[in-house]
Design a protein that fits this description.
- The protein is of the alpha/beta class.
- It is built from 16 helices and 14 strands.
- It has three domains: 180 residues, no CATH class; 65 residues; 166 residues, Response regulator (Rossmann fold).
Length: 432
């Protein structure tokens, strides 16, 4: 089952899954920048594309016999779990855990939660409470979504299962919250907005001291409404309604969090001002793509390594320890999905950005890429600008004044890897 949200809404999809008592995964992707219509530049060209594809935000919902087991976004970020753990004052223990073997690559948050349960840091009751909160907030976002695509795939359930939630009462409860949330517009628009006290003197005069202190603690312009709801074990609507009167009076302002563009600039600043040259590995059996990627990235200050043999790629990647991996999907013997899944099983590459290169611009291919843990994708043929935008997004700007790349790569590689390093600093393996 797959389609667009303009044709069927999330509520109807969930009802169909419940009625059919289906077991599997629902993947939903919001539309970001419009797809298609790009002014593409031939790879190796000298101008950047004016358009960059964007997959937008995406979510997974896991089902067993028509009931929900777990739900979350597909980014793999553990900040949400850390917020929930703060409720029980055990957020620091997250750094001591690793993903439990029972977790799939597209549910690392669930795996870390199980690890905490296995170590008895959390009780089963606390774990169930956290999962209920995660499912509620994910469905709240999905019910507020009107533009996007979805695909439901039958499969084995996520296991072991800590809890299962019936869909019908959840849908009724959350749809009511979404309708009430709309009444807060335009003063409050997003759960990710951060309230900030605009007039502390007047606010203090209008409130009891204890109430003011409570507001002062959370209304700092840095903590989002959603985070406050997680910390206090309250639903997002209750928290928003509590702040709303003060927003109406102008005593509290609603700020948006730092945008991804600014965050990306900060990452770029950090990379540019570090002494380390960003290292990129490209795994592709096509000679044209390999040479073009090496040339473009080398010219823009990156240390680029191209590998043609997918079987050798795994051992080489562990030696190179790249900051980002570009991986073709369609390759003989071992395809990109398999390589990505294998790398994600290693702690060394659990957080490394992996961008899939594909000649297919299809939704199912993007779903498969997400399911094996890919960070992003790039459709061939792609322009120089599109390649550089994605690389800069995840590892920052290169260093044109870098040391000679062949020396850096020579230090990272062992002689037995049988890689030929030419004088220009590009690396390749013999074609299979």
């Amino acid at each position: 089952m797959q389609g667009k949200l303009s044709e069927i809404d999330i509520r109807s999809i969930l009802q169909l899954i419940e009625l059919g008592q289906r077991t599997g995964e629902l993947f939903v992707e919001a539309y970001g920048s419009p797809m298609g219509g790009a002014n593409e530049v031939t790879i190796g060209g000298s101008f950047r594309s004016r358009f960059a594809r964007s997959t937008g935000q995406s979510w997974f919902v896991f089902f067993a016999n028509g009931q929900i087991i777990y739900a979350g976004d597909s980014g793999g970020n553990l900040s949400r779990l850390r917020d929930y753990l703060r409720r029980y004052k055990v957020e620091k223990t997250l750094e001591l855990t690793s993903v439990s073997a029972i977790a799939t690559v597209n549910a690392p948050e669930y795996g870390h939660l199980w690890s905490l349960l296995e170590k008895h840091i959390l009780s089963p009751a606390q774990g169930r409470n956290i999962i209920r909160g995660m499912v509620h907030e994910t469905l709240f976002d999905l019910f507020s979504l009107h533009q996007g695509s979805f695909i439901f795939e039958l499969g084995s359930p996520l296991s072991p299962q800590l809890t299962t939630l019936e869909i019908a009462p959840l849908v009724a409860q959350i749809m009511k919250q979404v309708q009430e949330w709309k009444q807060l517009h335009p003063l409050i628009q997003s759960p990710d907005q951060c309230p900030l006290i605009a007039d502390a003197v007047q606010l203090r005069e209008n409130l009891k001291e204890t109430t003011f202190r409570a507001l002062e603690r959370w209304v700092d312009g840095k903590t989002s409404l959603r985070q406050v709801a997680r910390y206090l074990n309250r639903d997002i609507l209750t928290v928003a309604k509590a702040v709303y009167p003060y927003v109406q009076q102008g005593l509290v302002q609603m700020l948006y969090p730092v945008s991804e563009a600014i965050a990306s600039q900060n990452r770029e600043f950090m990379v540019v001002n570090s002494n380390r040259v960003p290292r990129i590995v490209c795994i592709d059996d096509g000679a044209t793509i390999r040479k073009a990627v090496e040339y473009i990235l080398s010219q823009h200050g990156y240390e680029a390594t191209a590998i043609s043999n997918p079987l050798k790629a795994l051992s080489l990647v562990f030696q190179l320890k790249p900051d980002l991996i570009l991986c073709d999907i369609a390759m003989p013997e071992l395809d990109g999905y398999e390589i990505c899944a294998m790398l994600r099983k290693s702690t060394a590459f659990r957080e490394t950005p992996i961008i899939m290169l594909t000649g297919k611009d299809g939704f199912i291919d993007r779903v498969k890429a997400r399911m094996v843990g890919a960070t992003d994708y790039l459709t061939k043929p792609f322009g120089e600008g599109e390649l550089l935008m994605l690389v800069e997004k995840y590892v920052g700007l290169g260093r044109p004044d870098r040391p000679n790349p062949d020396k850096l790569l020579a230090e990272a590689l062992e002689d037995e890897l049988e890689i030929d390093i030419d004088i220009a600093g590009s690396v390749s393996t013999p074609s299979s």
